[in-house]
Design a protein that fits this description.
The chain is mostly helical. 73% of the residues lie in helices and 0% in strands.
């Protein structure tokens, strides 16, 4: 019996899904398969690395050129990508717009990164914004406008994360700031993101951006909630809220066939329960076996759900 025959039998017996059968059959036959997602991720990482390398080079080796020269070079590195995008990009449309070329999205992303670097340099050297966070707000607005103008969800994610930075929503901030106020800000921010995404979806303004808003907003809300699980007196309330949100995420993920939300709900819920239980589990041996047993259970459950309900996103 050949490998292809075994795959056909496994499919008929329900051992593997139709999607898995297609992929495994293509691998067994040495057919060509798509690696678009992997290449896309690597290219974005490459653009980020190039931008980071340029910033590092300016910081350590080109400082002697003078502020005017450095600012001019940075401005040029912003102007050229944006000129390319505005001259090659398609007209704006409320619907989904396909990129005009393979490199278009990466040129736009590079231009956004260099724009942020230019604002950061201007604030560092000239303090023109009177506040370090102001340049984050300006960058976030610019990224959001560019994301909608050129239909780029990655730049939209950059805009949202930059706005979160402007609001002070950073992991390390919970150690030094007023955690109650910061947690409230995060909950309000995440809820506002989801609300804005739903409203724009109903208005048919880049309706396909809804996933981006919900993914980021949902994670912000759950991170804010789980940060309160270990708080004295109110920890159990936050745990209850977290479990309710986790259940909602799992239900919505199964209902709308979005496996990522099933994973979010499972992992955040597991983390919250674990944070509470570790206070009552004594000794490293019990903790070790707890993580081994429950970790295997969580991974197994997610694997089964992925086979039954999951799909590529």
């Amino acid at each position: 019996m050949t490998t292809i025959d075994r795959l056909d039998r496994w499919k008929s017996q329900g051992v593997i899904s139709a999607e898995q059968h297609v992929l495994l059959r293509a691998l067994a036959r040495h057919d060509r398969i798509s690696v678009f997602v992997e290449l896309n991720a690597l290219l974005y990482i490459g653009v980020l690395s190039i931008a980071g390398g340029i910033i590092w080079t300016f910081r350590d080796y080109v400082v002697n050129l003078g502020d005017a020269v450095i600012f001019s070079i940075l401005a040029l590195l912003v102007a050229l990508p944006l000129y390319y995008c505005f001259t090659r990009g398609a007209q704006y449309d409320n619907g989904e717009v396909e990129s005009p070329s393979l490199i278009f999205d990466y040129v736009l992303y590079f231009g956004c990164l260099m724009f942020s670097a230019t604002l950061g340099f201007a604030e560092t050297r000239f303090a023109i914004f009177n506040s370090w966070s102001t340049h984050l707000l300006i960058a976030s607005i610019a990224f959001g406008l560019l994301a909608y103008r050129f239909d780029n969800r990655f730049v939209l994610s950059l805009a949202i994360s930059t706005l979160a930075g402007y609001l002070g929503l950073k992991i390390d901030a919970f150690d030094v700031a007023d955690t109650a106020f910061l947690r409230f800000t995060a909950l309000a921010f995440g809820s506002a993101l989801i609300g804005l995404g739903v409203w724009l979806h109903r208005q048919q303004v880049k309706a396909h951006f809804l996933d981006t808003y919900v993914h980021i907003g949902g994670n912000v809300i759950m991170m804010a909630t789980i940060s309160g699980v270990m708080e004295p007196r109110v920890g159990p309330l936050y745990l209850g809220a977290l479990l309710a949100l986790s259940a909602l995420a799992i239900y919505a993920g199964i209902r709308f066939r979005r496996f990522a939300f099933v994973a979010y709900g499972t992992l955040y819920g597991y983390a919250g329960i674990t944070m509470q239980l570790l206070e009552f589990i004594g000794g490293p041996i019990l903790s070790f076996w707890y993580f081994i047993i429950t970790g295997v259970m969580v991974v197994t459950a997610l694997t089964l759900v992925a086979r039954t309900f999951g799909r590529d996103e």
